Amino acid sequence: MRKKLVVGNWKMHGNRAANAALLGALKEAGPWTAEVAVCVPFPYLTETALALTGQQVLLGAQDCSSHEQGAYTGEVSSAMLSDLGCRFVIVGHSERRAYHHESDQLVADKAKAALAHGVTPIVCVGETLAEREAGQTEVVVKRQLAAVIHTLTHCIGEIVLAYEPVWAIGTGLTATPEQAQAVHAVLRKQLQAASQKADAMRILYGGSVKADNAAQLFAQPDIDGGLIGGASLKAADFAAICRAAM
Ligand code: PGA
C-alpha cells in the first residue's frame, strides 16, 4: 500500500508575512494521514524550515542544479538543499522545461544530483495540448521518463514521479480521473520494466487539482497523491486536498 503524498508547489509566490500566515494556518488544519510537503522559493527555505519544526509538513524546493558545486552563478546545489533540511526537490517542471529550455537529460542529471544528497526528486513529466491532440501523449511522457531511468539506473526506485499535463497546469482544465489514470498506468508499467520497486513508487498527478476534484483523482489505482500549484497558496484549499488524500 503506497502512502499518499500531497505536495504544494508555491512557484514564485509569497512573501515573509504571507508565508507565515499560510504555514500557521496549515499547522492548525493538520494533521493528515497522507504525507504532506511544501516546495517553496529558495529565499524562504530557511524560514519555512523553522516554521515547520515539529510539524508533519515536510520541506521541499522547486529546482536544483545538476552540478555538485562551483562557478555556476545563480544556481543552487542539492547539497545546499539538503543542508537546509529539504526532503524533496521538484525537477523538470514544465515551466522550467518551457521557459528555461531544460532538456530531458538535464532533468535526469538534476534528479541524480538530488539523490546523491539524500533529497528525493519529484520528477515532472507531461505533454502539451498540441502533443495530446496529435496522439503523442504516451510517446512524450515515456521519452521524458526514459531519460531519467537511463541516468539513474538502479536508483530509479528512489524518485517520486509526477504526471502533469501541461494543458492542465494553472488553466482550470483538469485531466479527468480516467485520462490521468491511463497515463499513470503507462508510467507505472515503464517503471515496472526498470525497477523491482515500481509498485511501491509514488506517481503524483498535477494540473488544476482543487478541493472538489482531488478525491476522485486520488481514488484512481495509480494516482498516489498530487502536486498542487494554485490551490496550495490557500490554506483551506490545500488542507482540504490533503484530507482528500486520506
Ligand atoms: P496548478 O499547478 O495546480 O496551479 O495547475 C500545478 C503545478 O504546476 O505543479
Q: Describe it for me?
A:
This protein has helices spanning 16-29, 45-51, 78-83, 94-99, 104-116, 129-133, 137-152, 177-194, 214-218, 235-244; strands at 5-9, 35-39, 58-61, 88-91, 120-125, 160-163, 203-206, 225-228. Strands 1-2-3-4-5-6-7-8 form an eight-stranded parallel beta barrel, surrounded by five helices. Helix content is 41%, strand content 15%. The protein has a domain at 76-239: TIM Barrel, CATH 3.20.20. It has 246 residues and is an alpha/beta fold. α1 (16-29) links the parallel β1 and β2. The structure holds 2-phosphoglycolic acid (PGA).
Write the SSE topology.
Blueprint lengths: L4 E5 L6 H14 L5 E5 L5 H7 L6 E4 L16 H6 L4 E4 L2 H6 L4 H13 L3 E6 L3 H5 L3 H16 L7 E4 L13 H18 L8 E4 L7 H5 L6 E4 L6 H10 L2
Bound molecules: 2-phosphoglycolic acid.
Helix/strand class: alpha/beta
Amount of helix: 40-55%
Task: Name the CATH superfamily classification of one domain.
Answer: Aldolase class I
Q: What is the CATH topology assignment of one domain? A: TIM Barrel
Number of helices: 10
The largest β sheet comes out as: 8 strands, parallel, barrel
Estimate what percentage of residues fall within beta strands. 5-15%
Identify the strand order in the major beta sheet: 1-2-3-4-5-6-7-8
Describe the global form.
globular
Show unreliable segments.
none
CATH class of one domain: Alpha Beta
Keywords, please?
single chain; 246 residues; alpha/beta; TIM Barrel; 10 helices; 15% strand; globular; binds 2-phosphoglycolic acid
In short:
This protein has 246 residues and is an alpha/beta fold. 41% of the residues lie in helices and 15% in strands.
